[in-house]
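Bumping with the actual sequence this time:
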Amino acid sequence: MRGTVRRVCAAGLAVGALVTALTACTGETEGDGAARETGRAVGKACADGTFTWSRVTERDRLTGVSAPERLGTGGGRLQNPMRRVYTPGPSVHTDGPAPSAAEILFSFGKKTGEIDSGARTLAEAGADTWAFTDVRLPAPELDDGRVVPRAAGEFVQYAGVREVSADFRYTCPDGRTVSGHARNWTVDLGGLMDCEEKADSPLAREAARHSCGPAAPGRPGH
């Protein structure tokens, strides 16, 4: 059985903090006046720079899977809970002083199509994009939106996300550059598979590898 796809949404995020974070580069040290002045100078010099993205990749990652559960004729509701096998989350790494993580993810979102490419600020982009630029965005919960099988079989429930990652180079107006890597997830995925049938997607095959028996048709190689 094919997985279902749900778009991620978030509400109540700290919008003011994110918009503020977009206005300057990092480099400030708490309690150090000289460092703060340096940080402001770096921020002013680096404002309105240019992002160049490369090696953009997209893959589905399994985040949770249940133990197999056998159902008789007519199927029924599954009872086994899912266990987490991977925790996705936004991530930004740089090799030097750079714009804030929110600004980097804002540019990344425009590159991947998660954010309107014409938006210049988070406010312009709209509420649906706040989650993508929040480095504290939690992983989606497991066990939500379960599918109820209507046939007999040995079923496994699974969850996943679509994860995107890329390398970037940021060029300040004065010519200085910094490189880095960004990663985030874009959609919350869910699915149900029968260990007695061949898995029809990479995510289902990964779920089968975790939960189905070694001789099950759903396992990779069968």
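The tokens above came from a reply further down the thread. Confidence is low (pLDDT under 50) at residues 1-39.
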